[in-house]
Amino acid sequence: MSTAFRHRNLPRLLLQAREAVMAHTRPGLRAHGLSDQQWRVLRVLGEHGVVETGRVAREAYILGPSLTGVLARMERDGLIRRARDVADQRRTVVEATDKGRQLVDALAHNIEAHYARMEQSLGKEKLGQLYALLDELIALEEPA
Fold it and tell me: Does any domain span residue 134?
Protein backbone atom coordinates (compact mmCIF):
# COMPACT_ATOMS: atom_id res chain seq x y z
CA MET A 1 0.00 0.00 0.00
CA SER A 2 1.30 3.44 -0.81
CA THR A 3 0.01 6.82 0.20
CA ALA A 4 -0.24 9.53 -2.42
CA PHE A 5 1.29 12.69 -0.98
CA ARG A 6 0.59 15.90 -2.84
CA HIS A 7 3.67 17.71 -1.59
CA ARG A 8 7.33 16.84 -1.56
CA ASN A 9 8.89 15.74 1.72
CA LEU A 10 10.03 19.13 3.01
CA PRO A 11 11.80 17.90 6.18
CA ARG A 12 13.81 15.44 4.10
CA LEU A 13 14.68 18.13 1.55
CA LEU A 14 15.81 20.47 4.32
CA LEU A 15 17.99 17.70 5.78
CA GLN A 16 19.37 16.94 2.32
CA ALA A 17 20.19 20.61 1.80
CA ARG A 18 21.88 20.76 5.22
CA GLU A 19 23.96 17.70 4.44
CA ALA A 20 24.92 19.08 1.02
CA VAL A 21 26.15 22.32 2.60
CA MET A 22 27.85 20.55 5.51
CA ALA A 23 29.70 18.22 3.13
CA HIS A 24 31.88 21.24 2.30
CA THR A 25 32.29 22.28 5.95
CA ARG A 26 32.88 18.96 7.73
CA PRO A 27 36.36 18.22 6.36
CA GLY A 28 37.62 21.50 7.82
CA LEU A 29 35.90 20.82 11.13
CA ARG A 30 37.36 17.32 11.34
CA ALA A 31 40.82 18.61 10.46
CA HIS A 32 40.58 20.72 13.62
CA GLY A 33 39.08 17.89 15.69
CA LEU A 34 35.62 19.44 15.88
CA SER A 35 32.21 17.80 15.69
CA ASP A 36 29.25 19.53 14.05
CA GLN A 37 27.85 20.30 17.51
CA GLN A 38 31.12 21.81 18.74
CA TRP A 39 31.25 24.00 15.65
CA ARG A 40 27.68 25.19 16.21
CA VAL A 41 28.63 26.19 19.77
CA LEU A 42 31.75 28.03 18.58
CA ARG A 43 29.74 29.74 15.84
CA VAL A 44 27.21 31.02 18.41
CA LEU A 45 30.02 32.24 20.67
CA GLY A 46 31.82 33.78 17.69
CA GLU A 47 28.69 35.73 16.80
CA HIS A 48 27.65 36.77 20.32
CA GLY A 49 30.64 36.61 22.70
CA VAL A 50 29.67 35.61 26.24
CA VAL A 51 26.41 33.63 26.09
CA GLU A 52 24.16 32.00 28.70
CA THR A 53 24.08 28.22 28.25
CA GLY A 54 20.33 28.13 27.59
CA ARG A 55 20.79 30.51 24.66
CA VAL A 56 23.69 28.40 23.36
CA ALA A 57 21.43 25.34 23.47
CA ARG A 58 18.65 27.15 21.58
CA GLU A 59 20.84 28.77 18.94
CA ALA A 60 23.05 25.72 18.37
CA TYR A 61 20.07 23.34 18.39
CA ILE A 62 21.56 21.07 21.02
CA LEU A 63 19.43 19.60 23.82
CA GLY A 64 20.52 20.56 27.33
CA PRO A 65 21.85 17.15 28.45
CA SER A 66 23.86 16.80 25.22
CA LEU A 67 25.13 20.36 25.52
CA THR A 68 26.55 19.59 28.96
CA GLY A 69 28.77 16.88 27.48
CA VAL A 70 29.74 18.97 24.46
CA LEU A 71 30.74 21.90 26.68
CA ALA A 72 32.70 19.62 29.03
CA ARG A 73 34.76 18.27 26.11
CA MET A 74 35.27 21.75 24.69
CA GLU A 75 36.37 23.07 28.08
CA ARG A 76 38.77 20.11 28.46
CA ASP A 77 40.20 20.93 25.01
CA GLY A 78 40.68 24.59 25.94
CA LEU A 79 38.13 25.95 23.43
CA ILE A 80 35.66 27.49 25.87
CA ARG A 81 35.38 28.55 29.47
CA ARG A 82 32.31 28.45 31.67
CA ALA A 83 31.51 30.71 34.60
CA ARG A 84 28.61 31.73 36.77
CA ASP A 85 26.64 34.68 35.43
CA VAL A 86 27.58 37.69 37.58
CA ALA A 87 24.00 39.01 37.31
CA ASP A 88 22.38 35.67 38.24
CA GLN A 89 24.52 33.08 40.01
CA ARG A 90 22.01 30.34 39.10
CA ARG A 91 22.97 30.67 35.46
CA THR A 92 26.12 29.65 33.63
CA VAL A 93 27.67 31.62 30.80
CA VAL A 94 30.07 30.36 28.17
CA GLU A 95 32.70 32.15 26.12
CA ALA A 96 35.31 31.06 23.63
CA THR A 97 38.90 31.11 24.81
CA ASP A 98 41.62 32.66 22.65
CA LYS A 99 42.18 29.18 21.19
CA GLY A 100 38.46 28.86 20.42
CA ARG A 101 38.27 32.32 18.83
CA GLN A 102 41.33 31.57 16.69
CA LEU A 103 39.63 28.39 15.51
CA VAL A 104 36.46 30.32 14.63
CA ASP A 105 38.55 32.83 12.69
CA ALA A 106 40.44 30.08 10.87
CA LEU A 107 37.27 28.20 9.91
CA ALA A 108 35.28 31.35 9.08
CA HIS A 109 37.51 32.08 6.09
CA ASN A 110 36.73 28.75 4.38
CA ILE A 111 33.06 28.84 5.32
CA GLU A 112 32.64 32.38 4.01
CA ALA A 113 34.46 31.37 0.81
CA HIS A 114 31.98 28.50 0.40
CA TYR A 115 29.04 30.89 0.88
CA ALA A 116 30.60 33.25 -1.65
CA ARG A 117 30.76 30.39 -4.17
CA MET A 118 27.11 29.57 -3.49
CA GLU A 119 26.23 33.23 -3.95
CA GLN A 120 28.17 33.33 -7.22
CA SER A 121 26.42 30.18 -8.49
CA LEU A 122 22.91 31.01 -7.32
CA GLY A 123 23.20 34.76 -7.57
CA LYS A 124 22.94 37.24 -4.73
CA GLU A 125 19.21 37.71 -5.24
CA LYS A 126 18.38 33.98 -5.16
CA LEU A 127 20.52 33.37 -2.10
CA GLY A 128 18.82 36.31 -0.40
CA GLN A 129 15.44 34.84 -1.36
CA LEU A 130 16.47 31.49 0.08
CA TYR A 131 17.45 33.10 3.38
CA ALA A 132 14.21 35.10 3.43
CA LEU A 133 12.06 32.05 2.65
CA LEU A 134 13.77 29.98 5.33
CA ASP A 135 13.30 32.80 7.86
CA GLU A 136 9.64 33.04 6.85
CA LEU A 137 9.15 29.26 7.15
CA ILE A 138 10.78 29.22 10.59
CA ALA A 139 8.55 32.07 11.78
CA LEU A 140 5.46 30.38 10.31
CA GLU A 141 6.15 27.08 12.10
CA GLU A 142 7.23 28.48 15.47
CA PRO A 143 4.76 27.89 18.29
CA ALA A 144 2.67 30.96 19.10
Answer: yes
